[in-house]
TrEMBL record:
One of its GO terms (molecular function) is 3-hydroxybutyrate dehydrogenase activity. The keyword Oxidoreductase applies. Keywords: Oxidoreductase. This is 3-hydroxybutyrate dehydrogenase. InterPro entries: 3-OHbutyrate_DH, NAD(P)-bd_dom_sf, Sc_DH/Rdtase_CS, SDR, SDR_fam. It comes from Paracraurococcus lichenis. Belongs to the short-chain dehydrogenases/reductases (SDR) family. It holds the Pfam family adh_short. Its EC number is 1.1.1.30.
Amino acid sequence: MEKILTGRTALVTGSTSGIGLGIAQLYAEAGAKVMLNGFGKPEEIARARAEVGAAMGVAEAPYSAADLSKPAAVRQMVQEAQETLGTLDILVNNAGIQFVAPIDEFPDDKFEAIMAINFSSNWYAIKAALPGMKQRGWGRIINIASAHGLIASAEKSAYVSAKHAVVGLTKTVALEIARSHITCNAICPGFVRTPLAEAQLPPLAKAHGVSEEAALTDFLLVHQPSKRWVEVEDIARMALHLCGPGSDGFNGAAISIDGGWLAN
């Protein structure tokens, strides 16, 4: 791994598993100092900190347990990252949750939680991180949106609304910092192979009376023409590219990595 991020620092939210952990691991391997954030079992968090820490050459990566549904906690997390890492050059807003139901049956508390964690936390984190980036004259903001930030699916009103808002926020911030060497982009994945996503297959197969392979291609990935998972590494590699050499011209983009979903 070429150390293209040597001397850079990064905060990746929702990075104790899945996409966020993949991005944090790759950043560390590329030479960055990385702070993790996220929920999970203590042993899973410890394992993530050890894995990323090993790539950084330390016993464990720094970690924030901030509850991203609370604006004050988001601000404190960014401040802690700046103090712990020395600077904050790269902010990756990745944390997200999901709930599925028709809008007239959608619980209000689930809607509020999804909007807070999937969208509002991005807004508060960017607001807190930008002054330092402006002062240093360099920064990268990457928002992990979704194919659902560009297209809708039924029974996902909160998630689709939040991810569309993330794409809109990305474009607005990009315009505001366009004349600096700070950029703000969104990555819009389709269905990504993670433990949480794969856990959907057994009940889906049972519900439709088909094999897990058929459940994947015919039901879960029904809109994804490749009929294959997007891999975590696909997302992480793009997140790395957006911070490395030759990335200054990427600004305000919503980059689809979705197996052809948006080509439909």
